[in-house]
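Title: Request for sanity check on glycerate dehydrogenase prediction

Description:
We are preparing a figure and want to confirm that the structure record we downloaded matches what your pipeline produces today. Could someone re-run it with the sequence below and paste the raw structure tokens into this thread? We only need the token string, no images.
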Amino acid sequence: MAKPVSIQVWNPSGKYRVISTKPMPGTRWIRLLTDQDCRVEICTEKKTILSVEDILALLGDKCDGVIGQLTEDWGEVLFSALRRAGGTAFSNMAVGYNNVDVNAAAKYGVAVGNTPGVLTETTAELAASLSLAASRRIVEADQFMRAGLYDGWLPHLFVGNLLKGQTVGVIGAGRIGSAYARMMIEGFKMNLIYYDLYQATRLEKFVTAYGQFLKASGEQPVTWKRAATMEDVLREADVISLHPVLDKTTYHLINKDRLSIMKKDAILVNCSRGPVIDEAALVEHLKVNPMFRVGLDVFEDEPHMKPGLAEMKNAIVVPHIASASKWTREGMATLAALNVLGKIKGYPVWSDPNRIEVFLDENSPPPAACPSIVNAKQLGLPSSKL
Ligand SMILES: NC(=O)C1=CN([C@@H]2O[C@H](COP(=O)(O)OP(=O)(O)OC[C@H]3O[C@@H](n4cnc5c(N)ncnc54)[C@H](O)[C@@H]3O)[C@@H](O)[C@H]2O)C=CC1
Ligand SMILES: O=C(O)C(=O)CO
């Protein structure tokens, strides 16, 4: 990064130096920090992805906390430097934190925050959008139209898949996976098969109740099934959406062998993390199975795509925008700032990261708590009552 580093400073006389490695949407997050005696420094460098060296230059020799991004490599080097600068707080502006070495952070006594909940519906809505766009071939049809190729209605033109009555498969039925499942079941009357390490009890209850409602209305009821193996989902589902965390157990979860057991005209959606799919194997699969379609928000070597993917008509690709609604992005900034502020101020950790709405109410001050610290137990941080 070219020196001097380009920085925007708020409340220069603030006691605590908090750095945000990127400008973030909204202004509430800045106000919350400056009102509590923080000097906020926002890195405004044009470079999209900051390297470890860039961030080291930003940290300097006094820094109390950092709000970072999922594109950055937060490991031993950065956490030891943050600690040397007197810092004890870091928050990703993301719910996923596979870019963070949590053990290294704990080793240096640094709390690691994330931003759950505020992006659940927004992300699920993009997964639903990709599912629809893929099933009805919307992007291909749009390109055809703009290319001036449409010369009249034809019985075979862009025939796709009907979702109603088909089976939606969800792998990773946590917050986002469950929200997506509900959208597809309620919106399109799909049946559900899911695979997760844990039982999605609330989701099962929802599908049971909705099925009863449909039956009572004289319609075909929807059904659910918790699969014993991921392979069962891949074999049975017509549309499959991936929503697990990225860790050792989910790296290349979708590989050549598993692609081969999916239906030839299945739809695969990924709004989790790129490396959950072996992308090179996916490109080969798309080449030999033209009816198989994918909707991808994330990529194995982001920001790059594996060779061949961009040319595939049966792939829809968007640049990691699943959480990109104004409300969500402003909320993510707020939660990340409050994680850092709370740790600096010695506040306890909110006891339920699934109930963070109270931090997002613009009309009242947020609770004196860190909304979500993923290594709270490891660091022995106290927990707040709801
Ligand atoms: N594309 C984007 O912009 C976004 C991507 N994400 C990604 O989505 C992920 C999920 O977010 P949430 O739903 O909030 O998290 P969550 O923690 O509520 O859900 C993750 C689920 O994955 C399950 N899981 C873990 N290992 C598994 C395995 N081996 N097989 C099957 N299931 C497994 C967990 O049991 C859990 O239910 C994040 O970690 C992040 O990587 C999240 C938000 C936006
Ligand atoms: O929150 C996340 O994990 C993202 O991918 C960004 O929305």
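Thanks, this matches our download. The CA atoms of residues 135 and 161 lie 5 Å apart.
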